[in-house]
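stage 2 :: seqdesign
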């Protein structure tokens, strides 16, 4: 330890900001990756441009750039832009201007709106306007997936709309192949166009397995950079035929499969049956019909899902929670239906409100901000290449506890006194162990119930039965613990403030009117890089029960910091104290909390830290001198309980010694240890002791009326070469004795029992209480400079 200052060295992990996506995209096993091999999660929204006007919806309501910025502001990173085949294959149709296309449908008001909000688009051809939309999305850093929704412009989809499969009235295979080639070629030089979906929702009596992927080779040949996205049969709900025989294509690392899932796709089950049972049944069906591709190492893109965002459809509300739990667990790529808040015209109705739309009818704001908040939880990837996909910064896998009904995750609050819901980006890192404990990563603390209708807590007794959590109900989203051995179960729940509670488990089965949403939690696996502040919060407050835990800390102190700093390029050094001043209070608090709570495990109220007020920091040298004076020579300034300065204590100890040894003791006062290393400390102590001794001689002479004069006392305080190491040297001598090992406590025992284990000192057979110390002073001996007196 240095003479006058506690030298603190801190290490902090530095997190680089997300790197821009290096286009083009490709695939690696089940993941979409960029050109650098980093994972890219497609979090898209569908923007319709395939209806009768063949103009991207909403251009009469808002400027194109404002719409693109709204997409980005809602957290989406790509747009699945739909288009009808006739846009390219029918030249008389594609050459119409936006104005002509709208006016021929009697949409004069929409044309006027485009003139106001997007005047530069009004007289472009439909093809040029489509290109302008793609270009503007690209300028706002949004990727684009082109989706051939239909052949003849109109609303999609119906089993009898003659657009379903090859041979239908409006689905000529040769025309389809020609249109795909033209679209792929048109955007050959546009890096923002990252994929093409060959055809939306194949359906109808003519659908078959052998012909459905014919367009893949055409698209790849025309534009080898883009992803080729193949849909399933039966409205894109069935890819089961691929479980036995995969597609045989000439290219690799560009193929993605897509799947659609809506609440109404599951019949009326969501509105009439128990949500737990429906969720389990539907996810089982999805796994059999498409989800198995993920296990086989193929990317699966949920290119359409959505709900009535007015919130009035209870069946949709149940469906969404189930969907979000599945999407989070599988960390799947997806695209929401839809962006548009309204249509120019849909199925003959002008200005139809799209209740599934992310934007309001007037395209001015989000239709349902709480829905966007829920969706934000799955917009960023959870997993990286070590699980086993590529792309995220390396981070040890952990669990997040996701609450799909809110789109939030369980976090610890700033006081660490309770658990609550918070943003998943700030999620606590958990580990769901084989023993069914939910352990806060980096600590020995685990989730425990307190009782019915009480907040859940963190505790260290993880072996008790109440600390074990089972995933019950068909959905496996009820996380349950037994309060007693008689089967008295409670489940995790939330209150109105988002506090994590434990309540009686509800809606486990049968009842179709019960809403289990508050008790639905999904334990998902993640390797997201955990926020530095989260680990600060956890590890600066909780006890470290094992030295191995230190390997996982996001900061280190002293020599550990130097080791990490020299062995890695991702860490930096921080010095919270500079020239005697605390300049980084956050780092300083980390140090204090780590020492008090994690290492010493003692009550901070019993241990004080002396700090100089900011206004006194103008003269550092003077303040150092004042602190030294206060600690050793005027302790009453600090605490009224300590009124005896160090020179008086030393003098008292000598005076309690046999009278014939006192002069020798005054002459041989030996300093040892770091607290005596202050500059000129020995001279100050010697001066004050000399004054006390001389005053005693004067008093003694006065009492004897100077008949007998005492000889002056020589006071000598020795500052010797081994002073710095004396304490450690003495400790090593003590530790080398056989008795030491019988009397000492191990580090593991200290970690288990804390500071209380040190109250009784078996070495010296005395009880040390706060404020009671015994100081043994020995004469200085040149042959044996240090002594131990028991």
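stage 2 :: out
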């Amino acid at each position: 330890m240095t003479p006058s200052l506690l030298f603190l060295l801190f290490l902090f992990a530095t997190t680089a900001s997300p790197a821009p996506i290096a286009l083009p995209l490709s695939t690696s096993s089940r993941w979409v990756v960029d050109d650098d091999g980093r994972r890219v999660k497609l979090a898209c929204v569908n923007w319709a441009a395939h209806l009768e006007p063949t103009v991207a919806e909403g251009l009469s309501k808002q400027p194109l750039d404002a719409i693109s910025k709204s997409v980005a502001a809602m957290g989406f990173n790509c747009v699945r832009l739909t288009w009808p085949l006739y846009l390219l294959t029918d030249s008389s149709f594609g050459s119409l201007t936006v104005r002509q296309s709208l006016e021929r449908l009697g949409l004069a008001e929409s044309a006027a709106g485009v003139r106001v909000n997007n005047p530069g688009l009004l007289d472009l051809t439909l093809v040029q306007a489509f290109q302008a939309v793609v270009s503007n999305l690209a300028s706002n850093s949004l990727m684009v997936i082109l989706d051939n929704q239909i052949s003849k412009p109109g609303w999609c989809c119906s089993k009898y709309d003659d657009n379903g499969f090859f041979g239908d009235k409006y689905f000529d295979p040769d025309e389809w192949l020609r249109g795909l080639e033209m679209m792929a070629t048109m955007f050959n030089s546009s890096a923002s166009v990252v994929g093409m979906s060959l055809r939306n929702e194949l359906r109808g009596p003519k659908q078959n397995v052998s012909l459905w992927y014919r367009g893949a080779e055409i698209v790849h040949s025309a534009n080898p950079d883009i992803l080729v996205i193949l849909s399933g049969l039966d409205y894109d709900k069935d890819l089961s035929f691929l479980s036995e025989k995969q597609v045989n294509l000439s290219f690799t690392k560009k193929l993605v499969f897509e799947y659609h899932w809506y609440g109404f796709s599951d019949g009326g089950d969501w509105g009439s049956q128990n949500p737990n049972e429906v969720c389990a049944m539907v996810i089982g069906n999805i796994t059999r019909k498409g989800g198995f591709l993920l296990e086989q190492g193929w990317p699966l893109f949920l290119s359409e899902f959505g709900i009535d965002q007015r919130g009035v459809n209870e069946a949709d509300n149940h469906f969404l929670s189930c969907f979000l739990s599945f999407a989070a667990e599988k960390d799947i790529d997806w695209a929401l239906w839809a962006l548009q808040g309204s249509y120019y015209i849909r199925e003959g109705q002008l200005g139809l409100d799209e209740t599934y739309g992310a934007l309001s009818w007037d395209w001015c704001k989000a239709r349902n901000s709480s829905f966007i908040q829920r969706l934000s939880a799955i917009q960023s990837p959870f997993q990286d290449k070590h699980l086993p996909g590529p792309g995220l910064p390396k981070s040890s896998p952990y669990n997040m506890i996701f609450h799909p009904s809110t789109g939030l995750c369980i976090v610890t609050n700033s006081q660490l006194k309770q658990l609550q819901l918070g943003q998943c980006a700030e999620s606590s890192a958990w580990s769901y162990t084989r023993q069914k404990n939910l352990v806060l990563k980096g600590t020995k603390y685990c989730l425990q119930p307190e009782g019915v209708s009480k907040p859940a807590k963190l505790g260290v007794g993880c072996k008790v039965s109440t600390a074990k959590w089972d995933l019950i109900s068909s959905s496996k989203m009820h996380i349950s613990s037994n309060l007693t051995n008689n089967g008295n179960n409670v489940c995790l729940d939330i209150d109105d403030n988002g506090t994590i509670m434990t309540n009686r488990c509800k809606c486990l089965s049968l009842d179709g009117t019960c809403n289990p949403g508050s008790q639905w939690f999904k334990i998902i696996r993640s390797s997201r890089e955990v926020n530095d502040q989260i680990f600060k919060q956890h590890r600066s407050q909780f006890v470290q029960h094992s030295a191995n835990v230190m390997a996982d800390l996001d900061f280190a102190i002293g020599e550990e910091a130097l080791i990490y700093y020299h062995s890695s390029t991702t860490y930096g050094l921080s010095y919270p104290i500079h020239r005697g001043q605390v300049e980084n209070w956050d780092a300083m608090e980390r140090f204090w909390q780590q020492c008090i709570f994690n290492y010493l495990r003692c009550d901070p109220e019993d241990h004080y830290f002396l700090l100089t007020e900011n206004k006194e920091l103008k003269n550092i040298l003077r303040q150092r001198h004042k602190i030294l004076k206060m600690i050793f020579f005027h302790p009453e300034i600090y605490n009224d309980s300590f009124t005896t300065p160090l020179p008086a204590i030393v003098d008292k100890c000598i005076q309690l010694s046999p009278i014939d040894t006192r002069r020798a003791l005054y002459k041989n006062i030996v300093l040892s240890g770091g607290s005596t290393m202050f500059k000129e400390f020995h001279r100050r102590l010697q001066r004050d002791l000399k004054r006390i001794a001389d005053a005693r001689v004067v008093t003694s002479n006065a009492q004897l009326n100077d008949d007998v004069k005492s000889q002056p006392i020589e006071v000598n305080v020795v500052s010797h070469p081994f002073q710095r190491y004396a304490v450690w040297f003495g400790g090593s001598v003590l530790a080398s004795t056989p008795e030491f090992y019988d009397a000492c406590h191990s580090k593991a025992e200290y970690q288990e029992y804390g500071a209380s284990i040190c109250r009784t000192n078996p070495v010296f057979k005395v009880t040390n209480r706060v404020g009671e110390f015994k100081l043994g002073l020995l004469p200085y001996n040149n042959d044996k400079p240090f002594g131990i007196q028991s």
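stage 3 :: structure notes
- The first helix runs from residue 64 to 73.
- The first strand starts at residue 10 and ends at 13.
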